[in-house]
Design brief:
This protein is α+β, with helices and mostly antiparallel strands. It contains 2 helices and 7 strands, in the order E-E-E-H-E-E-E-E-H. The strands form 3 sheets. Strands 1-2-3 form a 3-stranded antiparallel β-sheet, with no helix packed on it. It has a two-stranded antiparallel sheet with strand order 4-7. The radius of gyration is 20 Å and the shape is elongated. It starts with 9 loop residues before the first strand and ends in a 20-residue tail after the last helix.
């Protein structure tokens, strides 16, 4: 059996404005993301879906996860390849395609990392390591995966 890591996250809807989801405009799309021992992330839907623009939405977090995973792998690979990174910044962009039935899916995410390395480092190696980081990134390797559901319905 392969070694496994497990991640537990609680998502709690905080947008009940008094009448639950009785009407489409009668509730907020706000929620809290909690992981034990870490700060809570305040989330909402994209503003195009009546969400709060001041909160992170799932689409933001997917693109951020891809960017952060790539960066962390890249830094690791640079370290073991003796390429010294002194600064790293990425301006990532995700493109989501909307379907006539209201569903949607991401069709492309473009990472645009800007990396500074020391003069003694091999610039060609630094460029090549992005390809390896992309191949190693856990999130990038997982974007087309089944999502299992274990629902619990509570009537109140």
């Amino acid at each position: 059996m392969n070694k496994q890591h497990q991640y537990e996250v609680s998502v709690t809807w905080t947008g009940n404005l008094g009448n639950g989801s009785s009407t489409y405009r009668g509730y907020a799309r706000d929620y809290d993301i909690a992981c034990e021992g870490k700060p809570v992330i305040k989330g909402s839907a994209d503003p195009g879906y009546m969400g709060d623009a001041g909160r992170h939405n799932p689409e933001d977090m997917l693109v951020a996860s891809l960017s952060a995973c790539h960066m962390l792998w890249y830094l690791h690979l640079c370290t073991v390849s003796k390429v010294v990174v002194t600064a790293y910044e990425d301006h990532a962009e995700g493109v989501m395609e909307l379907n006539p039935d209201g569903s949607a899916q991401f069709v492309r995410v473009t990472l645009r990392p800007r990396v500074s390395i020391t003069a003694e480092s091999d610039a060609a190696a630094a460029e090549r390591l992005h390809e390896r980081a992309s191949a190693m990134c856990f999130i990038a390797r997982s974007v087309n995966f089944p999502v299992d559901h274990e629902p619990e319905t509570v009537t109140v």
